[in-house]
């Protein structure tokens, strides 16, 4: 099968290209940056370039995007050009080339302000039924691109699956107070309980989405590690999350103590992947229980694929206040 991967110089794009090549797919991969995993260098905002790359393609994995860390360095028009116009160009070219399935990598950032409940309220239980309230141009453009996918399914019959991925980047956190309070691995281990997914699991979700796309037609799915929390935990999670965690994993504190780690005092959201597990048959491997096993054995929290890909950063330049610019 011949497939197209966009954003092939990025974390997920590289992961998809590596995996698809290993599975003997014929992979056409595009990015604005050259890389060992990019076969065609160019912009998805250029419709002529996109059309040239689409010949013979049966499945599109659209991972190219401007991300949240670019909000401080790129204009709103840049986000529209890449995230909306680029997606539109790919969808139009897919119809012309008779592509069978289109897998769009979106983000849980589309939920925006819906992710943070008012002070005193329980943590938010985030499923696909939650109405997005985007809070920046990144969220707005990704939500608009999702709507374009739905439009092309409805009006052109293109099978489109939207995957709202949670955090899988290996870079440091974009909040200085978090970086100052926790080590990077401590932060990421904590996030597997409510808002992180390993890139290996993200890739498997994309492959399963492609298998199911024509049967489903159109669907949106949250792609995040399976949480052990339940709705009845939400009130306590906001005020005393370590107590809730200790009730579920009595041994976690001893494992964390070996590393000098600590859990968050409270969390404000829990991403729920039930729909993806049920409808896509997705079985993510890297959940908090598995992370604890990795820590006990001294293997670290990252999958082999995550270790191979490593950190790429989002900008060519550095910033005095940390890994990301602050406006």
UniProtKB/TrEMBL annotation:
Cited Gene3D superfamilies: NAD(P)-binding Rossmann-like Domain
Origin superkingdom: Bacteria
Pfam family, one: Epimerase
Residue runs in coiled coils: none
InterPro entries with a match to the protein in the record: Epimerase_deHydtase (IPR001509), Lipid_A_modif_metabolic_enz (IPR050177), NAD(P)-bd_dom_sf (IPR036291)
Domain NAD-dependent epimerase/dehydratase: 3-175
PANTHER family recorded: BIFUNCTIONAL POLYMYXIN RESISTANCE PROTEIN ARNA (PTHR43245), BLL0593 PROTEIN (PTHR43245:SF54)
Protein name: Nucleoside-diphosphate-sugar epimerase
Organism of origin: Chitinophaga niabensis
């Amino acid at each position: 099968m011949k497939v197209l991967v966009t954003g092939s110089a990025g974390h997920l794009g590289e992961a998809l290209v590596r995996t698809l090549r290993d599975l003997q797919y014929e992979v056409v991969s595009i990015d604005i940056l050259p890389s060992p995993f990019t076969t065609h260098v160019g912009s998805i905002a250029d419709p002529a370039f996109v059309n040239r790359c689409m010949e013979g393609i049966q499945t599109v994995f659209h991972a190219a995007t401007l991300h949240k860390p670019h909000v401080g360095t790129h204009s709103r028009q840049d986000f529209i050009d890449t995230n909306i116009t680029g997606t539109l160009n790919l969808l139009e070219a897919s119809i012309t080339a008779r592509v069978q399935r289109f897998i769009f990598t979106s983000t849980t950032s589309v939920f925006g302000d819906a992710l943070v409940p008012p002070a005193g309220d329980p943590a938010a239980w985030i499923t696909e039924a939650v109405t997005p309230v985007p809070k920046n141009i990144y969220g707005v453009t990704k939500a608009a691109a999702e709507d374009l996918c739905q439009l092309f399914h409805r009006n052109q019959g293109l099978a489109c699956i939207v995957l709202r991925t949670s955090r899988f980047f290996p870079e440091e956190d974009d909040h200085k107070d978090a970086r100052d309070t926790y080590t990077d691995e401590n932060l990421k281990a904590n996030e597997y309980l409510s808002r992180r997914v390993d890139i290996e699991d993200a890739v498997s979700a994309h492959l399963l989405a492609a298998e199911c796309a024509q049967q489903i037609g159109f669907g949106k799915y949250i792609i995040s590690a399976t949480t052990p929390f339940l709705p009845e935990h939400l009130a306590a999670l906001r005020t005393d999350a370590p107590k809730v965690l200790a009730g579920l994993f009595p041994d976690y504190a001893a494992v964390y103590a070996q590393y000098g780690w600590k859990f968050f005092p409270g969390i404000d959201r829990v991403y729920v992947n039930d729909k993806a597990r049920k409808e896509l048959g997705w079985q993510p491997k890297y959940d908090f229980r598995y992370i604890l096993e990795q820590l006990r054995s001294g293997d670290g929290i990252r999958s082999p694929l995550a270790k191979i890909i490593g950190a790429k950063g989002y900008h060519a330049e550095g910033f005095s206040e940390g890994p990301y610019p602050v406006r």
